[in-house]
Amino acid sequence: MNLHEYQAKSILKKNGVETPMGLTAENPAQAMTAAKEIKDKTGSDKWAVKAQIHAGGRGKGGGVKIAKSIDEVKKYAEDIIGMQLVTPQTPPEGKKVNKILIEQNIFYPGESKPEEFYMSFLLNRDTGRNICMYSPKGGVNIEEVAEETPEYIFTEEINPCVGLQAFQSRRIAFNLGLKGSAFKSMLQFSQALYKAFINADCQLIEINPVIKTSDNKIIAADAKLSIDNNALFRQPEIAEMRDITEEDPAEVEAGKYNLNYVKLNGNVGCMVNGAGLAMATMDIIKLSGGEPANFLDVGGAANAERVEKAFRIILKDDTVKAILVNIFGGIVRCDRVANGIVDAYKNIGEIKIPIVVRLQGTNAEEAKKIIDNSGLKVFSAITLKEAAEQVKDVLK
Amino acid sequence: MSILVNKNSRVVVQGFTGQEGSFHAAQMIDYGTCVVGGVTPGKSGQKHLDLPIFNTVEKSVKETAANVSVIFVPPALAADAIMEAAEAGIDVIVCITEGIPVNDMVQVKAYLKNKNSRLIGPNCPGIITPGEAKVGIMPGFIHKPGTIGVVSRSGTLTYEAVDQITKVGLGQSTCIGIGGDPVPGTSIKDAVELFEHDKDTEAIVLIGEIGGNMEADAARYIKANGSKPVVGFIAGATAPKGRTMGHAGAIVGSKDDTAEAKKEILKSCGVHVVESPADIGAKIITLI
Questions:
Q1: What is the pLDDT of residue B252?
Q2: CA gap A252, B154 in Å, rounded
C-alpha cells in the first residue's frame, strides 16, 4: 500500500526522523493559514507547496512550487488544488490533486552549503535481507545514478537479528562525506529511518533528497513509503491511511469481494484461479493475437457468486471484446464451477461478447457438457491449447 | 527415488484442527501419506482424524518420530510455527500459509540459517512424490510416478504443467511448489540442484515468473553443473511494470526481472524455453 508524502512523514516523525514542519490544506484559505502558522513556529519566510498524489516526478508536472510570500502560497494553492497533475509516473490523463502539503523552506542560507543525498531501505530478494541503499548524489533520478555512476551507490546489508548497527551508520555518514554535527545527525537519521522501516512494516522507504541544511541538520525533504499489505492486520493506524481515490475504482470494487484484479489496457478479459496461471493465461491471450484487459485471480472457491462478481467487474470495461475463463479444478470440481458460470451468466442477463471457458481437472468432461448444453453463447475447451485456439477464433 | 519426501516421511500437521488443516490432512491421508499426528496448542491428548494431537511440535517429534511438517496456521502466527518446527528438529517444513508479512520471513530466514531444516514455501502448494507422499494442497490424482522433476513458484500453473506431463505419458519424480513470496525458504536453484543429484530424475520442468533473480541463479547453476534436460516457462510476459500480480513476489522492478530477460538468460544457459504454457508437456516428451 502506498502512502501520501504527508502521511509518510507523520510515520517518520513518530519514529524520530527529522522532517520539515508541514501542514496540509484542501483549499487556498487553509493553505494561507498553514503558511502563517509555519512562519510563526519556524521563522520560515518561504514555503514549499506540494501536490499530494501517489506518483513521483510531481515537480516536473508543476505540482511542487516554492512560494516566496503568503500571496504566492495562495496563488500556487489555487493552481495546484483540483488540477490534473501529469507526471512520468501517472496515467496519461494525470491524477486529480485533492490535497496539498505546505512546508517550511529548508534551503535557507547559513554557515555551509546545503547538500542533497539519497537514502532508501528495502528488501534484497537475493539474500532475503533488508538493505540500506544510499548515495551522495541525491535529488536526482537514482536509477540514472546507478546506471551512469554506480560507484556513487552504496549499500549496507542488515542482519535482522540485531538491526542496523552503529558501525554501519558511521560508514554511511563517512561515505556521504559528512563531519562534525552533520555526521552525528546522520547517525541518528539512519537509525531512526530503519526503526520506522521495521515499526511500520514498510516494503520501501525512499528519501530523495535527504537534505543536509546550511546549519548541519539532516532532514527528510521528501518521503516515499510503501507498506507491506500482508502486515496491515497489525498496523491499524496505517491501514486507515489508505486513500481509495488514488486507486482504480474497479480494483477497489474487486478487493471488496477478495478478488485479486489488476486493470490493464487490452481487449480480452480473463478470469483464472491462481496467480501464476492467471499470468500464464494473459500470456496465452497475447500469443493468440489479443491483448489482456486484466489480471484476475478468483481464488480457490470459484463459486457462482464470485464468478458473477468477477464477470461484472470485467464487463465494466467496455474495451473488452471477449473473455477467457481458465480454471484448473484440483480440489474444486469443474462441474461445480461450470454450473457456477452458467448461473452467473443467467443472473447477469445478456452478455454481448463471446466467452471462452476452459475447465480442466476434476470432472472436466462433465463440465464441458454443462457448458455446451447451457444454450449460452459460451465456447468450451478442456486443454489450454484448445482455449488458445478458441480465443483466436472469437477475435477474428 | 525422489527428493525431500517419500513413503517413509512421517508428517505432522501444524494447525491440524483448523478448517484448512483438517480438510487437507484428510486429503493427504487419503493419498497414502504417512500422517502421524497434528499440533494444536491446548488440545493435547485429544484425537482428530483418528490421530493424536500435541501441544507442541517438539512433543510430536518425541512421540511419533515426525520428520516433516506441513503448516496451515494463519499468517500472523505462521512465522512462529516455522521456527517452532525448526527448533523441534523437523527436516522438511512445508508452509502453505499465504500472506505472511515480509519482515517476519526475513527473520525466519535468518533464524533457519543455523538449523538443519529445509523450508518449502511459504504461500505454496507444497511438495508431492507421486505414489508415495503428498505434503500440501495439490490435487493428487493428476500426478503419476515417473522421472520428471517439477519446480515452480505457482500453484495452479504447476498443476497445469503436471497434468500436461502426465497426459503425454510421463510421470513426476517429485514436484515442488516453492511459493510466490519474495522471501522463500527454498529457491528454484536449490530445487534444481536436488533434482540434479537425484538419480531417478531424468529431466526437469522449471516454471518461473516475473520478479526477483531466482530463475537467473538457477540458469547459471544449470549451465555450470546441469547434466539433465530442463524445460522452462516464465509467466508474466504481459504484466505491467511495478504492479504486484497476485503473488507478493510477482512484480517487475527492473529490466532484469521481466519475463523476457529471464527467458533470455535461461535460453543462454541451455534451458529449453517454451513461449506458451500450453507447450510444456509437448516439449518435455521430445527430450526424454
A1: 86
A2: 25
- For A297, counting Cβ atoms within 10 Å of its Cβ (0-12 exposed, 13-18 middle, 19+ buried), the class is buried
When CB atoms are compared, the residue of B103, B246, B247 closest to A198 is B103
**ipTM score over 0.90, yes or no:** yes
Task: Please say if B247 is a catalytic residue.
Answer: yes
For residue A264, give the nearest of B138, B217, B240 by CB distance.
Answer: B240
Residue matched to cell numbers 491446548: B42
Render pLDDT for A139-195 as a digit per residue (tens, 0 to 9).
988 989 999 999 999 999 999 999 999 999 999 999 999 999 999 999 999 999 999
Cell 493427504, residue located: B28
List all residues of chain B from 104 to 133 with a beta carbon under 8 Å from chain A: 105-107, 109-111
What pTM does this model have?
A: 0.94
Which residues in chain A touch residue B236, judged by CB atoms under 8 angstroms apart?
279, 282-283
Within 8 A by CB and 6+ apart from A100, the residues are A24, A25, A26, A31, A49, A50, A51, A52, A77, A80, A81
Q: Quickly tell me which residue has 546522520 as its cell.
A: A186
d(CA B10, CA B90): 10
Q: A349 falls in which pLDDT band (50, 70, 90)?
A: confident
Task: Give chain A positions within 8 Å (CB) of B245.
Answer: 262, 275, 278-279, 295
Please check whether residue B34 is in contact with residue B9, taking contact to mean a CB–CB distance below 8 angstroms.
yes
Are B148 and B172 in contact by the 8 Å Cβ rule? The answer is yes
Q: What is the mean pLDDT of chain A?
A: 94
Give the Cα separation of A117 and B77 in Å (integer). 39
CB–CB of A280 and B157 under 8 A? Answer: yes
